[in-house]
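User: Sequence recovery, please. Input:
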């Protein structure tokens, strides 16, 4: 996965899953940056037989990688439909105590929203708001099924959304309302999701797909132009991960996490607009 991301120009990524200390070791060896969070669930999972073990594994990860220049810790509840209110309360306290970003899948499918209404009487984002989890530290992945009030809520609380277009299509989750999110001022970054729900960890492909889907879904060919898609993959990604002061743009004082793209081949000639070529070609 790390090799594939490097080959398509990714210098920094966020990941939630199991054995994140091993992921961090790969990040360390390869020279990437990673914002990594061990997944919390309310049932046994690899490396976690219960909630107490999840806490233990998370704290061990924090201790092992604290101060590493390219590994940042996050706390990663899987999703509202797999995490109880009690667990969310512990996550909120831990995130506040240690100043950790909260990386979580939200509103990925219509089914999970129906299930939340049946079990809790509210949609997932309303439930998370009541639990104190909606705020600048929230990195909400997918966010496919949102109503206008939820988009406004995300903007008001300065949340970050990660759009994963290929994964949403492969799993038939739907098309996220990215143009509406951006109009409302919500920070939208770009992701691939994992290999199991995408097969390719190629951010260049995601830039192109995000731009095309944004136009089709909104019925506006001017929606999500190339520069917007490029920003989602760079500046907005860095900001979503809390790294905007370090990376994401070429500025004095920032780290030189840069790639070079050769636009001199026949397939990219003539080059009228480098950003357009980068996204569409």
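Assistant: Recovered sequence (281 residues):
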């Amino acid at each position: 996965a790390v090799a594939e991301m490097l080959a398509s120009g990714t210098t920094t990524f966020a990941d939630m899953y199991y054995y994140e200390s091993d992921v961090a070791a790969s990040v360390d060896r390869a020279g990437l940056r990673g914002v990594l969070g061990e997944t919390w669930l309310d049932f046994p999972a690899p490396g976690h037989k219960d909630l107490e073990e999840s806490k233990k594994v998370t704290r061990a990860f924090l201790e092992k990688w604290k101060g590493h220049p390219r590994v940042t810790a996050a706390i990663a509840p899987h999703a509202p439909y797999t995490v109880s209110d009690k667990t969310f309360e512990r996550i909120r306290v831990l995130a506040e105590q240690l100043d950790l970003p909260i990386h979580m899948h939200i509103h990925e499918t219509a089914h999970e929203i129906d299930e939340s209404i049946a079990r809790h009487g509210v949609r997932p984002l309303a439930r998370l708001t009541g639990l104190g989890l909606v705020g600048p530290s929230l990195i909400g992945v997918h966010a496919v099924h949102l109503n206008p009030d939820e988009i406004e809520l995300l903007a008001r609380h300065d949340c970050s959304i990660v759009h994963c277009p290929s994964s949403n299509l492969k799993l038939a989750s739907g098309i996220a309302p990215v143009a509406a999110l951006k109009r409302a001022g919500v920070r939208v970054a770009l992701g691939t999701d994992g290999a199991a729900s995408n097969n390719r960890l190629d951010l260049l492909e995601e830039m192109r797909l995000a731009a095309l889907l944004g136009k089709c879904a909104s019925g506006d060919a001017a929606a999500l132009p190339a520069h917007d898609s490029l920003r989602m993959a760079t500046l907005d990604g860095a900001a979503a991960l809390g790294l905007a002061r370090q990376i994401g743009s070429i500025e004095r004082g920032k780290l030189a996490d840069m790639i070079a793209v050769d636009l001199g081949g026949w397939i990219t000639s003539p080059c009228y607009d480098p950003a357009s070529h980068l996204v569409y070609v």
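The chain is about 45% helix and 15% strand.
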